[in-house]
Amino acid sequence: MRNKLDLLDVRIIEGLGKYGPRNVTEVAKRLGIPRGTMFFRIKRMSSFFYLRMVTNVYHTSLGLKKGVVIAKATPGNEELLFNCMKANPFYIYMSRCYGMVEGCLGIYTIPKEQCTKFEQFIQEIKNLGVAQNVELFWSTCFHTVNRTTKWFDDASEKWAFPWDEWVEEVRTQEKDLPYTLVDPDDFPVKADETDLFILKELEKNATIDWIDIAKKLKTTLQNIHYHYKTHVFKKGLLEAFQVAILPFDRDVSDMFWFIFRFDDHEKLAKFARSLLDKPFVYIVGKILSQNAIISQVYLPRLEFRNFVDSLSKLAREGYLQSYDYVIQDLNPEKWSRMTIPYEHFKDGSWVYEHDKQIRILKDLINGQKQ
Length: 370
What we know:
Blueprint: H1 7-19, H2 24-31, H3 35-49, E1 52-57, E2 64-73, H4 78-85, E3 91-99, E4 103-111, H5 115-127, E5 131-139, E6 143-144, E7 152-153, E8 158-159, H6 163-172, H7 193-204, H8 210-217, H9 221-233, E9 238-244, E10 253-261, H10 265-275, E11 281-286, E12 292-300, H11 301-316, E13 322-328, E14 335-337, E15 345-346, E16 349-350, H12 354-369
Helix pairs in contact: 1-2, 2-3, 4-12, 5-12, 6-10, 6-11, 7-9, 8-9
């Protein structure tokens, strides 16, 4: 079996991202290939390239504010820090990281009225001596970047990396941002419990059958269809379907989290828009009230230096002020992805138990000392 992507594979990935992973038949029809070929290719890519089809939620419309935490562990407490940061059940992504920071990167979705309590939770991890330093960045929702045929060379069946073209693109890019990267005016709760149940199931598997969701919720298929069409879809509770794949050789590639800073909003917008169709980018988010963005980047090691050289060129020309990054540990035991905290939503509002979180935090630390 082939262990590298060819043009048809990439066109399938592009089609699934464009038309949605729930529309496999439509994608096959538009590509002019049999459904059986589609399913065979998807299965192969799932095995060799960690292909996963999930759903990214638009947390802003669920009353949830996204917070990205980068914490530097106190030496000897690296694993303890990982567990302590998971003591808050509103995390949706947690990873060990290394490089500029030996510690953890966590992504949380916090009820808008509980942001101060969350800041206290993060500070308590430092106060208790588990972390030397913690940084919290409140962010917009993340904009999903799916793979396309751009930068894929059919003749060689390899990804091309025309960095000079990218630098020129940043210089000439448009200045408007998609709604996902615009600071929101508010964080309204537009969902009910059924909507959230549907969303959390789609987060686990974007191709799940509606009837399976209905059985899990012990409701009718008609009710699931109604909530998806009139609530989830029409109210914009779903940001995008994500066709996540590791397109480069995992043995010689790394995952990074970058924070890019700019002198003004125009330069931020140009840079951000240039990332929205690149094969090395997974997500892009804007740090609230700042001219800064955060992005998850996956690159072959041989190309990483070329990427940094391009950043250096952009900085010399004034398009980029500065950047920092950490390297994500891709060991399956060192990172985890969670759905929205569905079980903490009751009677139309989020239940945030700050005191309980602090108790769990202290119990974890006391247990380590014993």
